[in-house]
Specification:
This protein has one domain. The chain is 86% helix and 0% strand.
């Protein structure tokens, strides 16, 4: 069982990292071209307006993990009828969610945009135009979610990865058109985005009909109780979804209210870089999630615990490896990447990466909790913790705190959230939390302290080029050595040595 799951995990992880590499390059180029084409004000406007749309998209976010959980459970149990019922039920529910999103957006969202948000003079028409198309894009993406959920749950990540690559390349092509199309770039960009979202939805539908028609078909739901089960489960998920979105986008809106669209531009760029760094662990995590859920469904506690430990440790180390390199060279990276770097971008980006490193540890824990189906008190508790980010950030800004204060608050709450999740895993599963602390937290803490001290000792070098060309390679070698020695168990080291030996013999 472990050998098979490890092989499958490795294959799917490889596909996700190929996807990551291509989408990362595309994202870097896209951000540069967009910032040049739109300017700092319009780029910040896009981030501020999209923040409202994402904020009201909590229903979709609540259902995403729900659908993946039920798909993975049905697949783990081998119940084809339940799988079909879940898919058709979720498809209908997502359609309702898309309609509700548009209703909320055209009422509350539109009021907030026009009467509460802060935009430069003459930009309100553009803001409304972007808002309307952003609503349509989000609705189209909501309709895509049941398809992507079944692809992930069935571990068909080759198509998922390929689709993301196609989407990134097309998006990049659209962005370059901004430089040659003799129209207002701000208006034409959002139209391009809408066209792309529609194309990707149709692409997902075609693939589903082509490859899943024998096992899953669009039909009436035979077990009507599945609606109640799904909505009940996702109902509690809404608490967590609201909290996560508020945690992320609520602060973006606060930044607009207190500092204006220029800071929204800095926040948007920092979010983009942090998201790219995050991809170094999300690809691996996406591949691992279905296996964690299936292990729970099968009652295989040993496999589930091994997956949690392995996923937590590898996710953190991957993110730290890339994150430290980016943080150390962030000013140089921004300088060669962007012509016009908004103020506070470097500091926001560095702090976001630190927060992402801590949050990476939580991912396998909340997947495990969702797999149990016992999410009521978990969602209530974690939602309360995460929503404190908006409260504390608002208070901090009200008393004159700088922009970075909101990220310091975010990091603190990430730590608290991890502790809360550990407690729920201990309460709801047979997974041994003390083993997680021993095999994950202790070695990772030691590694982090050592790397942090080394990073601090070479921070005094001000020449960015010397940092990048000389000290960064030395830092890479050091991190690889320390992670190998302290981050891996003997069995994991032996597995790596075996792979290297096989590669050497194969080349000979």
């Amino acid at each position: 069982m472990e050998k098979t799951s490890t092989k499958r995990l490795a294959k799917n992880t490889m596909m996700m990292y190929i996807r990551m590499g291509i989408t990362m390059i595309s994202s870097l180029i896209t951000a540069r071209v967009l910032l040049d084409a739109l300017g700092v004000e319009d780029y910040g406007l896009y981030n501020a307006v999209s923040g409202i749309v994402v904020l009201i998209n909590f229903l979709n976010n609540a259902l995403t993990l729900t659908s993946q959980r039920y798909f993975s459970y049905a697949l783990g149990e081998g119940d084809k009828q339940k799988l079909q019922d879940v898919f058709n039920a979720t498809s209908i529910i997502y359609l309702v969610v898309a309609v509700l999103l548009i209703i909320i957006g055209e009422t509350i969202g539109l009021w907030f945009l026009n009467f509460k948000m802060v935009f430069p003079e003459g930009k309100i028409t553009l803001a409304n135009f972007v808002f309307q198309f952003s609503l349509l894009i989000t609705a189209l993406n909501i309709m895509r979610t049941p398809f992507s959920s079944i692809f992930i749950a069935s571990e068909r990540l080759d198509f998922f990865a390929t689709s993301s690559i196609v989407e990134s390349v097309l998006h990049l092509g659209f962005v370059f058109l901004l430089l040659v199309v003799p129209l207002n770039p701000s208006f034409i960009y959002i139209v391009f985005q809408t066209t792309l979202s529609l194309f990707m939805l149709l692409w997902f539908v075609w693939y589903f009909n082509h490859y899943y028609s024998d096992s899953i078909r669009f039909s009436k739901v035979k077990n009507k109780d599945i609606y109640k089960e799904l909505t009940s489960f996702s109902g509690w998920g809404i608490f967590g979804s609201i909290a996560v979105i508020g945690f992320q986008q609520g602060v973006n809106i606060l930044l607009n209210l207190f500092f204006g669209v220029t800071i929204n531009a800095a926040f948007g760029i920092a979010n983009r870089i942090s998201a790219m760094v995050n991809q170094f662990f999300t690809g691996f995590q996406t591949a691992a999630n279905p296996q964690i859920t299936k292990a729970q469904a099968a009652g295989d506690v040993v496999e589930q615990q091994n997956l949690i430990i392995r996923t937590s440790k590898i996710s953190y180390l991957l993110l730290m490896f890339v994150g430290v390199i980016v943080i150390y060279n962030i000013e140089y990276i921004l300088k060669i990447w962007l012509n016009n770097v908004p103020e506070h971008t470097a500091s926001l980006c560095s702090l976001m990466i630190v927060g992402a490193m801590i949050d990476a540890l939580s991912a396998p824990l909340y997947v495990t909790i969702f797999a149990t189906g016992k999410i009521k008190w978990y969602q209530i508790t974690i939602s309360f913790v995460l929503l404190l980010n908006i409260v504390f950030s608002y208070i901090a800004f009200l008393f004159g705190a700088n922009v970075e204060a909101c990220i310091y608050i975010r990091i603190s709450l990430f730590i608290i959230s991890y502790i809360v999740r550990l407690l729920f895993v201990k309460a709801y599963t047979n997974v041994k939390v003390d083993v997680i602390l021993k095999e994950v937290i202790m070695p990772l803490t030691v590694i982090t302290l050592i790397v942090g001290l080394v990073l601090y000792s070479v921070w005094f070098v001000k020449n960015s080029l010397v940092r990048f060309l000389l000290l960064t390679p030395l830092l890479v070698v050091f991190m690889v050595c320390i992670m190998y020695m302290l981050g891996l168990k003997n069995t994991e080291k032996q597995a790596i040595k075996l792979i290297i030996k096989q590669r050497v013999l194969k080349n000979k």
